[in-house]
Amino acid sequence: LDPEEKGPWDGAIYSATSSDGINFSGKVLLFERSGVPSLLKLQNGDMVLLYQYFSNTDEDLFDTIAYSISKNSGLTWTDTTAINFENLPDPQNPRLKPMDPAIVQLEDGRLRLYFTYHATGSKTPALYSATTSDSDIASEFVVNTSPALLTDKNLLDPAVTYFSGAWHHFTWQDGSDNNYHSISDDGLNFTMQEEISLSMDFLGQVVTYEDGLRFYGTRKGMVASAISADGYNWEMESDKIVQGADPAVQKLSDGTYLMVYTSMNFN
């Protein structure tokens, strides 16, 4: 990665809020030189935001999965801190680092991070996971050295949720209306399912919604959404939520919605 060239470091992460999960307003700049956000409301009520960060002052924070925490529903955030990985396999190329975070909290409180990684010996980037031993985001994320899903396809930008007795993983296909979908019983080993064709890229975050799922994704430079009752069959809901891409959304304790998204759109 050359920071002198155009790239993801030219992006920034913004937030907006909504009373209904569709009509968002109040755009606020959160972090410059950042992208691919993932948002999670922890069991203790704190909000944790993960993102790829490209510091221009600290080499250790360039192209790094980092996090910030909010204890006031997203009004203010802590400084950028790098995720602490343990047991990470060697990369295919020394420049290749973990990227595209998707954070979930397990029922027992532990945190699991899904991410894109191109390990040595693999032809393509794969879906990996890493899990903490407790609920502290500052703890070591121990990497499962076997990929959660390895195919001959570029598996980028994961979105993962637990729904109806299974873990569901989604991601988009560059240059296609189809999106990838895989499922898992344990959240560690996924099996590819039939591709999902939709006029929206699954580039964003999937959340539980009423009795089903809602995916906040990306369509032609706009944040869009689709809904599903089972995780397999989807229908478009809204295609022009805000201008931006790769959103992440969580419902706050007061019933309102917090969205973070990026100004960049590479799809």
Structure summary:
With 267 residues, this protein is mostly beta strands. 0% of the residues lie in helices and 52% in strands.
Structure write-up:
- The structure is a single chain.
- With 267 residues, the protein is an all-beta fold.
- It contains no helices and 22 strands.
- It has strands at 12-18, 24-32, 34-41, 47-54, 62-70, 81-82, 85-86, 99-105, 111-117, 126-131, 141-143, 159-163, 166-172, 178-184, 191-192, 196-197, 201-209, 212-219, 222-228, 234-243, 245-251, 257-262.
- A hairpin with a 5-residue loop joins β1 and β2 (24-32).
- The two termini are 19 Å apart.
- The relative contact order is 0.16.
Please describe the topology of this protein.
Elements: E1 12-18, E2 24-32, E3 34-41, E4 47-54, E5 62-70, E6 81-82, E7 85-86, E8 99-105, E9 111-117, E10 126-131, E11 141-143, E12 159-163, E13 166-172, E14 178-184, E15 191-192, E16 196-197, E17 201-209, E18 212-219, E19 222-228, E20 234-243, E21 245-251, E22 257-262
Parallel strand pairs: 7-11
Antiparallel strand pairs: 1-2, 1-22, 3-4, 4-5, 5-6, 8-9, 9-10, 10-11, 12-13, 13-14, 14-15, 14-16, 17-18, 18-19, 19-20, 21-22
